[in-house]
Design goal:
The chain has 212 residues and is α+β, with helices and mostly antiparallel strands. The protein has a single domain (2-204), classed as 2-Layer Sandwich (Alpha-D-Glucose-1,6-Bisphosphate, Chain A, domain 4), CATH 3.30.530. Helix content is 34%, strand content 24%. The chain has five helices and six strands. A hairpin with a 2-residue loop joins strand 2 (112-116) and strand 3 (119-127).
Length: 212
């Protein structure tokens, strides 16, 4: 009984610590106050989100050099520049590219960007060299996702030649149980997104660009 009580206290303490300290930080990793609170393309798709996360990184390259890596995002294309081995453990078949491929650069509103062979989000907003916004959700078998979701990749070129790369997730819940799914997923999203931001930065900052 004492062990059970001790385990409950430990779990409760960890949960409280996450809510009070870690949660707000991981939802705004790398983002300034302006990054996190300012409007971004795609916000209008889910105007009153139940959960929003904005993460950011500075890239020592122009927006024109960062954009091609974003344009080719997707399974069967450039991948997501994150932890491929983790994504592939659940069958996503992701292989992050180390080069820009011209055939993957022509993305249009209405196109699908796959997260896995059978799962895709739609391109909802496209502003070349500035913004790519995806929308949709990941179903659970035959159960539709209990939320509406937008995923924005936004470039802000700075006066010093650097570019701020922002990634914003917005969730609008459509079922009462949506937070039971989304909140745990946000911990994984943080892990994968910070790696993705670093992956895009490192690729864009390279002096050379290989093509076919």
């Amino acid at each position: 009984m004492r062990r059970w009580a001790g385990a409950c206290v430990a779990i409760g303490t960890a949960a409280a610590g996450y809510v009070l300290w870690a949660r707000s930080r991981q939802l705004r990793w790398g983002a300034s106050e302006d990054d996190a609170s300012g409007p971004l393309p795609g916000d209008e798709l889910i105007p009153r989100p139940d959960l929003s996360a904005t993460r950011a990184i500075a890239v020592n390259a122009s927006a024109d050099r960062v954009w091609p890596w974003i344009a080719q995002l997707g399974q069967g294309r450039g991948g997501f520049y994150s932890y491929d081995f983790l994504e592939n453990l659940v069958g996503c078949d992701i292989h992050s590219a180390e080069r820009i491929v011209p055939d993957w650069q022509d993305v249009q509103v209405g196109d699908e960007v796959k997260l896995a062979p059978e799962v895709a989000l739609g391109v909802a907003v496209l502003e070349p060299a500035r913004a790519l916004v995806l929308r949709g959700g990941v179903p659970m078998g035959k159960t539709p996702p209990p939320y509406d979701f937008s995923w924005a990749f936004v470039l802000r070129e700075q006066a010093d030649g650097q570019t701020r790369l922002l990634v914003r997730e917005r969730y609008g819940y459509t079922s009462w149980w949506a937070p039971l799914l989304v909140e745990p997923v946000q911990v994984v999203s943080f892990l994968m997104t910070q790696k993705m931001l670093r992956g895009i930065r490192d690729r864009a900052e390279r002096i050379w660009t290989a093509t076919d």
